[in-house]
Amino acid sequence: MQKATFILAIIFTFTIKVSAQKNYYVSPSGNDNNTGLSPINAWKTIQKAADELLAGDSVFITAGIYEEFVIPANSGTENNYITYTTYADDTVIIDGTTFSKTYLQYSDRGIFDIKSKSYINVVGLTIRNSNGGGIMCRYGSSHINIKNNTIKNCQATGIGVGYSREDFPLATNIIASGNFLDSCSMVSRESISFRSVDTFEIYNNTVQNTPKEAIDAKSGCSNGKIYKNTISNAGLGIYIDAGYTDTLYSSQNNIHIYQNIVKNSITSYAVASEEGCLGEDIWFYNNIAYDSISKPGNGFIVANFGTGDGGPLKNIFIINNTIYNKGHRGIYINNLNVRDIFIRNNICSQNFISQIDVKSTLIDSVILENNLIDGVNVDDGDFPVFGNPKFVNPNVGDFHLLTTSPAIDNGTSVNAPENDFDGTIRPNGVGYDIGSYEYLSPLPVIDLNNQYDVHCFPNPTTGLVFIKGDDIQLIQIFTSQGQLIDKIKVVNNKIPILNLSNKTKGIYFIKIYTADKIKTKKIVLI
Description:
Number of strands: 43
CATH architecture of the largest domain: 3 Solenoid
Low-confidence stretches: 1-19
Shape: globular
Structural class: mainly beta
Number of domains: 3
Strand content: 35-45%
Number of helices: 3
CATH topology of the largest domain: Pectate Lyase C-like
């Protein structure tokens, strides 16, 4: 009996230890000999927290300037991340001015340096004045979330992930989102640099003022998404570089780049294989590149960077992008070691040297279809559309289409994305539009013509709406601002049921199509 009791005691003690989740605090006025468990008993250094935090723990850092390196000692677990963040909305600055030169010196190390650790959140910090990197995740780190940080004045990478060696696995499941980076990679590397990372997302970041690449996914990065980033004043906006063949990976594949804006930069988007690794299944769609007419760069380039004619690339898709006012070409293909390049539904307007230019020896490897050409050009491809695309206001970066744009309904459905830059469903009209935006007709007006009657009930509704009418074939759902958000095809005149339960409460409009009539109804979601 005593033995059984002893075993139960061990189990109970172990359970308490692994499930306890603690909040700790750090303050410039604290003391590392404190408990750290309250603001008045805060630790003084972030590194003290980094040494002590266990799975599920969080540290809340109060306002101040911290001159230190931070190297987490422990990992979290799948359901118990370790979190480093600010106390309330405090401004927390980790500054490398006085100490980073001897330790970092343009290396792969960062002021916040995660090495071979997993399940960590780094949220809301400011990292500045590093002679090397800002936030780095190295040597097989996984499940790391780097969110809403500000990183300034780094000589090397602002956010760097991967940089594995043969004796460490690939980095996996990494997210960098909502970060602001200014004047990073001033000497080496890239502002946001992912190398040898499997399964990743880079989104909603703002990157500006770098002579080098703003965002780079390279050397075996695969299964990734790069989207909704805004980049300005960069040497190269977004770069996909397959890199070199390594024992850790054999190719770089399945990367989607979409809904990004790159402005006033030399080259906007590029894909290459600098050192011979195969790059394949790379998708660029719904992106915008504009305003660098004075700089000698291209909107999109499938490039021969590196040595010789360029490393191997295949299945590269450049679809429904808008490229305007670039200093060289809108789209340029000069890698001679490519096959199966698909260029469809792009607007190339007023780019200085050429709108689309494909090396003559590559014509059989490149499919050019349904692109709008506005300006001097080399290669038109099949089914081109010529003329002014009639943007709403390109001078302020508004590339929505006016009602008379020749881009409307003249695209192809082949490879077209399901949504446009704004999230509007494609197609919105008779056909698919060319460029990053689908044209949206003016907000539907409620049809008072009673010759065709449709009943929508209940209305107002808490979610479900039944629609009853004769010969209904298609229903479109619009927000009150006129954005198409859903559509339903009706088969065999069944009574359609709309489910708005996952939408925000408010007013919606639905367009109901028969073979020869259109009816518009207002729906109130409560």
